[in-house]
Specification:
Layout: E1 15-19, H1 34-41, E2 44-49, E3 61-66, E4 71-78, E5 83-84, E6 86-88, E7 94-100, E8 106-113, E9 118-124, E10 134-137, E11 142-144, E12 150-154, H2 161-165, E13 168-172, E14 178-184, E15 190-196, E16 205-210, E17 228-234, E18 238-243, E19 248-253, E20 256-262, E21 274-280, E22 283-291, E23 302-310, E24 317-320, E25 338-340, H3 342-351, E26 357-361, E27 365-368, H4 382-386, H5 390-394
Parallel strand pairs: 11-17, 18-26, 21-27, 24-25
Antiparallel strand pairs: 1-2, 2-3, 3-7, 4-5, 4-8, 6-7, 8-9, 10-12, 12-15, 13-16, 14-15, 16-17, 18-19, 19-20, 21-26, 22-23, 23-24
Length: about 400
């Protein structure tokens, strides 16, 4: 949160006035030609600022208006030295900040006119009743696979989705086409992801500028009080194809087959079946405890599992499953995951990168992975994904 510091009460006025400095260049009488320039030098610069006092309303742009003449420059600085950029109107009378004032923040306004005069004013915005924060994925400066979306999960509900979305800027090194899409995360929180039209090109550099300070997320959501910056690089072009009907996992690099692995998927016909669809490797979690009770499957298992690679929030993994060895390549007999031998799982684990797509096909499935159950947005057509943008909906597209 931007800090708030005490400000002098004398500074909180609707109009700020500062006399231009006088320059003494020697004697002269009232009838001389210098009289006119002296009167000009004594002219005062007057500005008004739309936000005043110690409890000014946050979320509005700062507007600085000059009483007479033309504005030459305006600087609006917060207590930490951050600046609000802005634009002077065509008539030179008004300067408006590009971004709104953030809550709980003190600002100093300094203006100069075309005649060399200047004025200064200060104000502070009211502290927020509630602050909204975000969790970003993937991590900053990471290298990820070609299917990894940029994902933002919010601590509190976001009702003003279009307003928030317009403050989110994604830049790529090769002008990749893509868009934001909103959903309720598997955790129940508000979430927005940026997905490219097609899988990323290897080597693409992706940057997010989330200029959210001063944006109101809506009722029950609270204010954002800081900006966020992150970025990642797209790594190797790798795709994992898992066929539940043939019981095989095939690894492809740049379209070439790297390895063909026998596996056993989830037992069909009930809750233990696997999901189908285009999912994304969310995390390589290594050796973890898997307990069926945590995913609603009773007490059917509770064991340590090696080479665990998370594919969904609901608990579907690809991992080593030596206890299922008789079924590798012949039948689906797991509790929902894609099981392999220790040796094969070790190879896949070492080869795969977070963000790689796992394209799971076959009839022996319980349905298609939901959009919010991990990164399931690739199961939508691009047109359907674009329709989940709040800005697109607001524009009627």
């Amino acid at each position: 949160m931007l800090s708030r510091r005490p400000v002098r009460s004398a500074a909180f006025a609707t109009t700020a006035v500062l006399a231009a400095a006088l320059t003494a260049c020697g004697g002269g009488d009232a009838s001389s030609g210098d009289a006119k320039s002296d009167l000009k030098a004594q002219k005062k610069t007057e500005i008004s600022v739309n936000l005043t006092g110690r409890q000014a309303k946050a979320g509005e742009p700062v507007k600085v208006t000059l009483a007479d003449g033309r504005l030459q420059a305006v600087t609006v600085t917060d207590a930490k030295g951050g600046k609000l950029t802005g634009t002077v109107s065509a008539d030179g009378r008004t300067w408006t900040s590009d971004r709104p004032a953030a809550p709980g923040t003190s600002y100093t306004v300094e203006a100069k006119d075309g005649d060399g005069g200047g004025a200064r004013a200060e104000f502070a915005t009211a502290a927020p009743d509630k602050v909204n924060k975000v969790t970003l994925a993937p991590g900053k400066d990471t290298t990820v696979g070609v299917a990894q979306p940029l994902s933002i999960v919010f601590d509190h509900p976001v009702k003003n989705k279009a307003d928030v979305e317009k403050h989110l800027k994604v830049t790529t090194s090769n002008s990749t086409e893509g868009t934001w899409g909103w959903m309720e995360d598997y955790s129940g929180r508000s979430r927005v992801d940026w997905r490219p039209k097609d899988y990323w090109k290897p080597g693409t550099r992706v940057t997010l500028e989330a200029d959210l300070a001063g944006v109101d997320s809506g009722p029950s959501g609270g204010w954002f009080v800081k900006d966020y910056r992150t970025g990642f690089t797209v790594g190797r072009n790798q795709v994992v194809k898992a066929d539940l009907d043939s019981h095989r996992i095939k690894l492809f690099s740049d379209g070439q087959l790297v390895k063909d692995v026998p596996m056993s998927g989830g037992t069909p016909g009930g809750d233990k079946a696997s999901w189908r669809g285009r999912t994304v490797l969310m995390a390589k979690e290594g050796t973890i405890n898997m307990n069926s009770e945590t995913v609603g499957l009773g007490d059917s298992y509770n064991k340590m599992v090696d080479y665990s690679m998370r594919l969904t929030w609901s608990g579907m993994y690809a991992h080593a499953a030596p206890w299922n060895a008789p079924y590798f390549g012949s039948a689906n007999k797991s509790s929902g995951c894609l099981g392999m031998s220790d040796a094969d799982a070790k190879f896949v684990y070492g080869w795969a990168q977070v963000g790689d797509p796992f394209e799971i096909t076959g009839d022996d499935a319980k349905g298609t992975q939901a959009v919010n159950n991990g990164y399931g947005e690739w199961n939508l057509t691009y047109d359907a994904w674009k329709a989940k943008s709040a800005l697109a909906r607001a524009a009627g597209n």
